[in-house]
Amino acid sequence: MKVKEVAELTGISIRTLHHYDEIGLLKPSGTTEAGYRLYSDTDLEKLQQILFFRELEFPLRKIKSILESPGFNRLEALEMQRGMLQAKQEQLVRMIATLNKTIEHAKGDIAMTNEEKFKGFDFSSNPYEDEAKARWGEDAVNRANSRLGSMAAGEQKTLGDEMNALYSHLADLRHTSPASEEAQAGIKEWFLLLNQMGSYSLEAFRGLGQMYVADERFTKNIDKFGEGLAAFMRDAMAVYADSNKRD
Asked: pTM above the 0.85 mark?
């Protein structure tokens, strides 16, 4: 399909498609003799994936990093997106019900309690922690949180200092290959350090690396040690997980 046809099919602008091409997010598989972009069915599948992420308010830079991740799995991502959209839908239904009642209350038709006025607002849950529980098992996440909480203040400080030192060390390596011997040695230390707090399987470790890029909060904190560190760690963690699998 030509870019105009894709724009008409999806409802997004030609300019947006051009922008996706320019930043390397969605490059069409081919071009015509005249130089016009041509999109394959595979390109359209990728575009659909991008638009699901956009609906969930993922920034373009994060979407690109996720799609380029060595451990990216399309079906897994679709299932995750479905769960996140369903949760969003459920909250919207609750908020619309509260809004309808509030309108009736404002008209004087009904009375609302203070509790009813705020039904549907939920700022307590962490969607990324919920996702981690769903993907890696609730028990593993709860054990990690419990172990951290049970540490004395001095132990927590020591662990925090070790983590910061390792972040700094990995930041010095971030312009090398994630598969290099030195990078893998550093990532092994990271794997062992994390397992002092919880119980991380190799797949959980890989998934955590993906979250370093998918979640802006992770990225912002990690990249304080060096721009691009989060993406480097994600890639190195994926290599480590693959290299240490048992046949």
From this structure: no
State the DSSP string of 134-157: HHH-HHHHHHHHHHHHHS-HHHHH
Q: How many CA atoms lie within 13 A of 187 on its CB side?
A: 31
Run of H or E including 30: strand 30-31
What is the phi/psi pair of residue 30, to 5°?
A: -155, 180
> What residues contact 23, with CB distance under 8 A and at least 6 apart?
60, 64
Other Cβ atoms closer than 10 A to 28: 19
Lowest mean per-residue pLDDT among 27-41, 85-99, 124-138, 176-190: 124-138
Residues 6+ apart with CB under 8 A from 82: none
Nearest CA among 199, 168, 164, 140 for reference residue 156: 164
- Kindly report, residue by residue over 126-183, the tens digit of the pLDDT: 454 455 454 444 555 555 556 656 666 677 777 778 888 999 999 999 999 999 999 9
CA distance 187 to 233: 8
Residue 38's beta-bridge partner residues? 2, 30
Sign of CA dihedral 67, 71, 74, 78: negative
